């Protein structure tokens, strides 16, 4: 009787194990691919938040402008000791950074205006991303 119990137990356990393996395989097959995005090593990035600002208000738009100015200076390696005497590389970097920031700022302001007018916006809330390639 003991031998028969062990065989039955073994048969049930192997059935349970097989069904668990099939279930695990099925759930793994249903997952989509995992995609990871990363910036290249030679890119300096800073994110400028505006969650605390009401960008429908001009004063808060100016505050955002000051924040972006600071971020541009940091990613482009502004040197306070050379104020007014930065090299051409800094100015080129700053121009590129602002070229990338301006459309993001305009979109953030439009989002705030949409929300002020209708209570909603189709534009997602994000931070302004200042990116420059190292030179």
SSE arrangement:
Elements: H1 2-30, E1 43-48, H2 58-75, H3 88-118, E2 128-133
Antiparallel strand pairs: 1-2
Walk me through this protein's architecture:
- This protein is mostly helical.
- The chain has a domain at 43-133.
- The chain has helices at residues 2-30, 58-75, 88-118; strands at residues 43-48, 128-133.
- α2 runs antiparallel to α3 (88-118).
- It is flat, with a radius of gyration of 28 Å.
- The termini are far apart.
- The relative contact order is 0.15.
- The mean pLDDT is 80.
Low-confidence stretches: none
Number of strands: 2
Distance between the termini: 81 Å
- Largest sheet, described in full? 2 strands, antiparallel
Radius of gyration, in Å, reads 28 Å
Helix and strand content put the structural class at: mainly alpha
The largest beta-sheet arranges its strands as: 1-2
What is the succession of H and E elements?
HEHHE
> Could you report the average pLDDT, rounded to the nearest whole number?
80
User: What percentage of amino acids are in beta strands?
Assistant: 5-15%
Query: Counting H and I runs of at least 4 residues, what is the number of helices?
Result: 3
- Bulk shape: flat
Helix content: 55-70%
Signal peptide: 1-28
InterPro entries: UrcA_uranyl
Protein name: UrcA family protein
Keywords: Signal
């Amino acid at each position: 009787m003991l031998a028969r119990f062990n065989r039955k137990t073994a048969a049930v356990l192997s059935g349970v194990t097989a069904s668990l393996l099939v279930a695990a395989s099925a759930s793994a097959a249903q997952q989509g691919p995992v995609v990871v995005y990363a910036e290249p090593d030679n890119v300096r990035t800073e994110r400028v938040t505006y969650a605390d600002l009401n960008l429908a208000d001009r004063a808060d738009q100016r505050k955002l402008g000051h924040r972006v100015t600071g971020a541009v200076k940091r990613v482009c390696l502004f040197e306070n000791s050379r104020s007014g005497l930065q090299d051409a590389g800094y100015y080129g970097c700053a121009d590129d950074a602002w070229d990338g920031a301006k459309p993001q700022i305009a979109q953030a302001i439009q989002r705030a205006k949409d929300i002020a007018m209708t209570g909603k916006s189709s534009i997602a809330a994000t931070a302004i991303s200042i990116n420059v390639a190292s030179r």
